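User: Please predict the structure of the protein below. I'd like the answer in structure-token form so I can feed it into my own downstream comparison script.

Assistant: Understood. Taking the following sequence of 229 residues as input:
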Amino acid sequence: MLKRRLKEPFGKAGLTVAIIALVFALVGGAYAAGGLTKSQEKQVKKIARKYAGKPGPAGPAGPAGPAGANGTNGKDGVNGTNGANGAPGAKGEPGETGFTEVLPPEKTETGSWVASTSGEAYIPLSFNIPLEEEIDGSHVHIVEGSTQPAQCPGTAVKPDALPGNLCVYVSDNALEFGEVHAINKPLKLSPPEPGAGTTGAYLQIKPKPGNGFAGMVGTWAVTAPEPPA
């Protein structure tokens, strides 16, 4: 009956508040008297657990806050300075044309020759690039065996000649078969004229005594004279 009367004037919420007030009154009085006893402490916890309300449902989410202001943009960096231009490369020497009418001064051309005969024969030496002038007999040389004129510093394998000279090299293994007698200007077989023309020369060869056959091979080199001073 008492419980019903308490609920009627106060309602459920009012009852809870009244009980909590009672608890605080007891606690306050107990502290005033020197603190709660263990029995009182248990009673307070029991009453608080019994009438404590359950947690309410979560409230609705609040509205979104306003957007923040844009930050200031960073400034563009300063352009770097241009690097210094490199020094121009050195100019190369002018190239020679692909065709020349005559052999340039101090330039060398080379060739090879072969002979096969049972008697005296004439072996042509043709210059691919003509000379500007003929070469006299004193500047035409046969290089065979240990004979090595100073004007002919090359070999049968690598022929060479100093400017203004024609050097004819005879292969060492050919000397046992034949003989090289002279180097003459072409088209002047009668009488032969020592030297070389602007387009080439020819050799006079024949078999060695006792041999009925001559087989010989060799190379040649001709170098145009130095330019006039």
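That's the full token string. Confidence is low (pLDDT under 50) at residues 1-11, 29-33.
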